[in-house]
């Protein structure tokens, strides 16, 4: 099958509810699409995501039950679960710091001031945003941003709930990249939000403080796999110029 262009893949992608049981998909190709999804942008390049590729029938059946046995899960050939791992922020922070240091070494930059400026964001600012162990710290961050905002443009999304939204936005970007990549090779997907997240985390042995962003079913659509024609509200209703 000839691979589609990005525009063709976007047009082709639909949320498929029923997959053809006689048309299996190659797990290695799905894995490649996941790899491409990891190239998606993420806030501060923190990459607070994990992709759980469910290929075994036994595990898929367990998760299907936690998805209320909806057809998109029940008929899927494979599942991809995107978990938000905000709890790994310190590890991701250090990975970025190490990468910056390696980049500076490759570029033979030995100026301590330049190195300090390059590292300041991850060593000082990132912990201010992601550290959330005590409630009063979050309150202080929110109040501080409001006060500073009276005098100059200020970053305001600093509370625990704000950071949670940020992490899920990054995961959603990766999810879309994965689905477009799948569509590009003629594979179908359906992003599902109807599931018991606690049970899914238990099945995957995930820590309780991580969150499931979405479960994406994968396969080849059946003749009745797409429910109706694509509907979108008028473009002029959502497109604004300034």
Describe this structure in words.
By secondary structure, this protein is an alpha+beta fold. The chain has a single domain, classed as NADH Oxidase, CATH 3.40.109. Helices cover 50% and strands 11% of the residues. The protein contains ten helices and four strands; from the N terminus they run ααβααβααααβαβα. Strands 1-2-4-3 form a four-stranded antiparallel sheet, with helices on both faces. It is globular. 27% of the residues are buried.
What are the main properties of this structure?
four-stranded antiparallel beta sheet, globular, 242 residues, NADH Oxidase
Overall CATH architecture: 3-Layer(aba) Sandwich
Our Rg estimate from Cα atoms comes to 21 Å
Unreliably modeled segments: none
Average predicted confidence as pLDDT: 93
Estimate nothing, just give the exact number of structural domains. 1
Number of helical segments with 4 or more residues: 10
CATH fold category name: NADH Oxidase
Amount of helix: 40-55%
State the major sheet. 4 strands, antiparallel
Strand order of the largest sheet: 1-2-4-3
What is the succession of H and E elements? Answer: HHEHHEHHHHEHEH
Secondary structural class: alpha+beta
Shape: globular
Q: What is the CATH level 1 assignment? A: Alpha Beta
How many beta-strand segments? 4
> Could you give the distance between the termini?
43 Å
The CATH homologous superfamily corresponds to NADH Oxidase
Strand content: 5-15%
